[in-house]
C-alpha cells in the first residue's frame, strides 16, 4: 500500500495534517486514475465497492488480532491500513474527512 505516500507528503506539514494529505491523494487518484496506482485500482476494481469493503473487513480483523496478541507495532500498521481503506470508502461515497470530524465533534 505504498501508493498514497508517493512523495506527496510534506515534511513541513504538521503531523495532524496527515489525514487531510492522505485524503487529498485519494481524491486525486479517484479523479486521475493513474496507471499502476493501487488507490486508483480500488476505484476501478471489477468487484466495485465490494473490493474496498473486503479490505476494510480484512484490515479490521488484522488490527483486532494484533491487539489480541499485544503487538503494538502490528496494531499500528494494521490500523493505518484500516484508516486508509476507510478513507477510500469515504471517497467512494462522496464523504470526506470533514464529515468524519463533524460526526466525532457531535459526540463530545
Automatic annotation (TrEMBL):
Gene3D superfamilies the UniProt entry points to: MazG-like
InterPro entries: HisE (IPR008179), PRib-ATP_PPHydrolase-like (IPR021130)
Entry's Gene Ontology cellular component terms: cytoplasm
Example of a GO MF term: phosphoribosyl-ATP diphosphatase activity
Domain of life where this protein originates: Archaea
Record Pfam families: PRA-PH
Pathway connected to this protein: Amino-acid biosynthesis; L-histidine biosynthesis; L-histidine from 5-phospho-alpha-D-ribose 1-diphosphate: step 2/9
Enzyme Commission identifier(s): 3.6.1.31
Entry's localization field: Cytoplasm
Family: Belongs to the PRA-PH family.
Protein name listed in UniProt: Phosphoribosyl-ATP pyrophosphatase
Taxonomic source organism: Halorubrum ezzemoulense
Gene that produces this protein: hisE
Amino acid at each position: 500500500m505504498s501508493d498514497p505516500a508517493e512523495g506527496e507528503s510534506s515534511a513541513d506539514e504538521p503531523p495532524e495534517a496527515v489525514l487531510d494529505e492522505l485524503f487529498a491523494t485519494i481524491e486525486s487518484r479517484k479523479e486521475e486514475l493513474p496507471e499502476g496506482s493501487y488507490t486508483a485500482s480500488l476505484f476501478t476494481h471489477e468487484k466495485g465497492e465490494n473490493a474496498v469493503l473486503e479490505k476494510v473487513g480484512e484490515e479490521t480483523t488484522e488490527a483486532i488480532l494484533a491487539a489480541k496478541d499485544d503487538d503494538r507495532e502490528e496494531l499500528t500498521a494494521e490500523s493505518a491500513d484500516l484508516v486508509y481503506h476507510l478513507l477510500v470508502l469515504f471517497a467512494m461515497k462522496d464523504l470526506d474527512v470533514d464529515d468524519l470530524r463533524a460526526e466525532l465533534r457531535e459526540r463530545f
